Amino acid sequence: MATVAAHDVSVGYQKQRILDQLSVELPEGQISVLVGSNGCGKSTLLKTLARLLSPWSGQVLLDGTAIHELPTQAVARRLALLPQHPVAPEGITVRQLVSLGRHPHQSWFEQWREEDERCVEEALAHTGLSALSERGVDTLSGGQRQRAWIALTVAQNTPLLLLDEPTSFLDLTHQMEVLELLQTLNRDQGKTVVMVLHDLNLAARYADHIVAIKEGRVHAQGAPAEIFTAERIHEVFGLSCRIITDPYFNTPLCIPFGAGFPA
Fold this sequence. Notes:
Elements: E1 4-13, E2 16-26, E3 31-35, H1 42-49, E4 57-62, E5 65-66, H2 72-78, E6 79-82, H3 94-99, H4 114-126, H5 142-155, E7 160-164, H6 172-189, E8 192-196, H7 200-206, E9 209-214, E10 217-222, H8 224-227, H9 230-237, E11 241-245, E12 252-256
Parallel strand pairs: 3-8, 3-9, 6-7, 7-8
Antiparallel strand pairs: 1-2, 1-4, 4-5, 9-10, 11-12
Organism: Larsenimonas suaedae
Subcellular location: Cell membrane
Pfam families: ABC_tran
C-alpha cells in the first residue's frame, strides 16, 4: 500500500493561486474521490500530489517522505498518474503505449522481462483491449483511447493510482467497467486510488472517502453519506438538490433541481 498527503500546500500558475494552504491526507488502501465545481483546484491538487507541480509553500508526502526529495524512478514505482488530457506519440500502437507503463521497473542491465509482459497482457485484458492491441492509438475512438491510457496506468503496477476524470469520453457501460476495475484493484490488490469524478452519484457509489474542494481548500471530507447532503452540495456547487438513498446500493443519490427550485 501507499500513503500520500498534502500539508499546507499553496500552488498556482504564474501569479494565480489555485490551492490555498490546502491540507489533506488520503486514506491508505481506500478509494478517495475529489469533487468540486470547475476551477476549484481538483486537477491541480492531483498534479501536485504526483509531483508534476511544485508547491509555492507546504509539502507533499509520499509514504511519509517529502516527494520532491525522492528519486524520479522511486516515485514512478510508487504512484501512477492518468492526467486529464494525455497525448500519445504519433503512430504508437496500443500495446506499445501500455508497455510504457513498465519503464519505471527497468534498468540498463535489466530490460524487458517476463513479468513486464505479464503486466501488459493483464492490463490489456482488464481494460478490454486485447483484440485492439496492435491498432494505432490514433485510430481508436475517444472511449477506446481513454481505456488505453488507463491500461498503461494499470500496467505500471504501482500501489498508488491517481486518475483525473478516468471516465471521460466513455459511454455508460465503459464508465462502469473502468470504475469496477479500479474497485477490484483496490479490493483485491490493496491499491490506494485517488481520482477526480464529476458524476456525484458514481462518486458516492464507488468512493470510500470523499474530498469536497471549494476555492482551493478542502471544504469537507469523509464518507459519502457524511458529505453528500443537500446543504453541502449547495455550498460546494451552488446547486439545489435532494438526496435520497439508492435503493440498490444504499449510497446517497443526488437528484438535482433547476434554477426555479428552492435551495
